[in-house]
Amino acid sequence: MPFKTILKELVETTPGANGAILADWEGEAVEQYCMTDTFELKVTAAHNGIILNQLKDVLANFPAGGLRDAVITTASRHAIVGPVGSDYSLVMTLDRAAVIGLALSRFTRTVRLLMKEIY
Predict the structure, then answer these.
(1) From the CB of residue 89, how many other CB atoms can be counted at a distance below 10 Å?
(2) What is the pLDDT of residue 53?
(3) For position 42, what pLDDT does the model report?
(4) In which element (H, E) is residue 64 found?
(5) Burial of 22 (0-12, 13-18, 19+ CB in 10 A)
(6) Which portions of the chain are predicted below pLDDT 50?
(7) Distance between CA atoms of 86 and 25, rounded to whole angstroms?
(8) Per-domain residue ranges for the chain?
(9) pLDDT, tens digit (0-9, with 9 covering 90-100), for 37-69
(10) CB 3.0 to 4.6 Å from 81: which of 27, 35, 37, 48, for a disulfide?
(11) Is 39 left (phi over 0), alpha (psi -120 to 50) or beta?
(12) H helices within 14-72, ranges in order?
């Protein structure tokens, strides 16, 4: 299944979602699906990729296991970021009123689908 199709399904089936992007280890967009400004999504993905890498480094010394995902909340939105294997990351942006539990469930499913396609 093409990456675009997977990302489109994630965004369109998650209430409050407005974009999702698969980025490489440098933060460059591989594929995206967005219902808002695509440039803003690319910038968000690059910055969240940096945060993701820093969190992975911090958590590497803890016995709880590797980082699966992180929710970053600002005054106006949420962003969920997580690794897709060792070389990619997935970022999804949502409205502030979105239900995070449902979004995380769909996010985790999408990571599994992307892993099957990539590896």
Answers:
(1) 27
(2) 85
(3) 92
(4) none
(5) buried
(6) none
(7) 8
(8) 3-118
(9) 899 999 988 888 888 888 888 888 888 878 899
(10) 48
(11) alpha
(12) 38-59
